[in-house]
Amino acid sequence: MKTVKVAEAKARLSAMLAEVEAGGEFVIARGGTPVARLVPLAARGERELGFVPFHVPESLDDPLPESELAAWEGDGE
């Protein structure tokens, strides 16, 4: 783990972030006193699409009943 002063961290932030993405770590110090640590976040795992279990019914593409069609067309009750 490397220690850098605040001024160096400000000047080299992009390069430091690239190094952190590759697994590196930094301690940022002010006046010789460590005040922060720059470390990679834990990698996120794969996530399933959707928030709840859902199954598309086989009847999804079946034609609508006449009463439903009429309602959509404004001819229903």
UniProtKB/TrEMBL annotation:
Domain of life: Bacteria
SUPFAM superfamilies named in the record: YefM-like
Residues of the signal peptide: none
InterPro entries assigned: Antitoxin_Phd/YefM, phD-YefM_TA_antitoxins, YefM-like_sf
Pfam family, one: PhdYeFM_antitox
Function comment: Antitoxin component of a type II toxin-antitoxin (TA) system.
Family: Belongs to the phD/YefM antitoxin family.
Name used for this protein in its record: Antitoxin
Lineage of the species this protein comes from: Bacteria, Bacillati, Actinomycetota, Actinomycetes, Micrococcales
